[in-house]
Amino acid sequence: MKLSEIHRRTIEVYETQAGSWDRHRPRTLNERVWLDKFTAAIPPYGTVLDVGCGGGDPIARYFIERNFALTGVDAAKAMIEIARTRFPAMTWIQMDMRELSLNQTFDGIIGWDSFFHLNPAEQRLTLMRFVTHLKSGGALLLTVGHTAGEVLGQVEGQRVYHSSLDPTEYKSILIEAGFCQVEYVAQDQRCGMRSLVLASCLHPRGE
């Protein structure tokens, strides 16, 4: 199967595998080191948009337990249903991040193990959608790749598409968008060798 076809089927995979993916999703929260850095960059008890929220545990749970107002977005209806059952008081929206259009801005946006399912062209466009959904001073945390390219991963035994821009391009795009600080770490051993971008202190052009 071609990479383009695997990419096209990403949402379908998560839709059909939502239950088993959620059961197998580790809850150890090795991500905490970066979640703590992210929350330090936004106001206490602020608003957070979790893009590609899955079933809401453990990432959304982390913010909910710290009294942030959490909105979760996922393209897979089955994932949203799990999250809504788990945390009914929060806001859960079925929406493809590539078409993100909410009548709200947020103090922070996180895309943990989700944004990298977009192809490079989609990533460039979606980064701008994220910027328009952030308040001035806001922060953005994404898991990305450690080098530019396209690779295959697996979700419950099914192949899924991953891609990344070059780290220097992420930095360039985000600085141009108005972020004062952009931190990139490649293959961080503290959270499963993930590569991450944390952009903070957004001041959109024109302000």
UniProtKB/TrEMBL annotation:
InterPro entries: Methyltransf_25, SAM-dependent_MTases_sf
Any GO BP: methylation
Methyltransferase domain segment(s): 48-138
GO MF: methyltransferase activity
Keywords: Methyltransferase, Transferase
CDD domains, alphabetized: AdoMet_MTases
Protein name: SAM-dependent methyltransferase
Presence of keyword Transferase: yes
Keyword Cytoplasm belongs to the record: no
Pfam families for this protein: Methyltransf_25
Domain of life: Bacteria
